[in-house]
Amino acid sequence: xxxxxxxxxxxxxxxxxxxxxxxxxxxxxxxxxxxxxxxxxxxxxxxxxxxxxxxxxxxxxxxxxxxxxxxxxxxxxxxxxxxxxxxxxxxxxxxxxxxxxxxxxxxxxxxxxxxxxxxxxxxxxxxxxxxxxxxxxxxxxxxxxxxxxxxxxxxxxxxxxxxxxxxxxxxxxxxxxxxxxxxxxxxxxxxxxxxxxxxxxxxxxxxxxxxxxxxxxxxxxxxxxxxxxxxxxxxxxxxxxxxxxxxxxxxxxxxxxxxxxxxxxxxxxxxxxxxxxxxxxxxxxxxxxxxxxxxxxxxxxxxxxxxxxxxxxxxxxxxxxxxxxxxxxxxxxxxxx
Length: 337
Prior knowledge:
Blueprint: H1 4-7, H2 14-22, H3 24-29, H4 37-63, H5 67-92, E1 96-102, H6 108-121, E2 126-130, H7 138-147, H8 162-173, E3 178-181, E4 184-185, E5 194-195, E6 199-202, E7 206-211, H9 234-246, H10 251-254, E8 259-265, H11 270-284, H12 292-305, H13 308-311, E9 323-327, E10 333-336
Parallel strand pairs: 1-7, 1-8, 2-7, 8-9
Antiparallel strand pairs: 3-6, 4-5, 9-10
């Protein structure tokens, strides 16, 4: 067990080094062997000591959680993952694009914030980019909704400016010094959202590109003949098929990814419970929020567009995926393979 007291020591205890080999799946995922375990854990230990004060501040000011509660996740997941991303960036000798796929409540935003913090301590300039930042403008989405009334919410394939995303990633890959990055504000237009002031970034080394279907690829349309709930009616199946077709437009964006990580809940239906918990907490704090029925309609809409069982589950078994991180019902991280 890693604690603040133990961090003060010069070197990790032997039991910490031994524990790194106990979880064989995780050890394999992060390239840890009996031959290199001591060297790797010592490097991670030094990085932990360096990054912990800033991590503690991030927990208290931004993540609003006691650092001690997620210190094991920092040690077992975020530190080795950041070291792995940094190593791959060094190997390719150009900007590195890391894709991160995960549904609601899987910890994409938190993971990206912590990874960016660690990578900054390794002296890499990191850009956190969400697929939400690529949404078409509010006015463009109003026109889109008139053309296809089924697009009642932003989110599904077709509601993003794919060319904008490609241009941003290509500008970074071409080592352009200054890049203008779009940002999206979900609170604008009564929660419909719109582009906010863009951000200017310079000399980016690593991009953490996250989203609920980043890297998802079209599936055989035949799967919709026996599709899972809530895809029930013929209209539901047609919507699912049309969204599947729209995914082809995103493949040019996914081609820019150097690596893809999947944050995979034990059961995809957990995202519905997590969304309800988040809304209940928001309403308890005095802010407006959706009713449970509205939340179910909202989440079902996304499942009808790109169902996790059809689009994400197959990816977890695909050789094209670099890492799968399982998410437990309490939001903690489980198996890493």
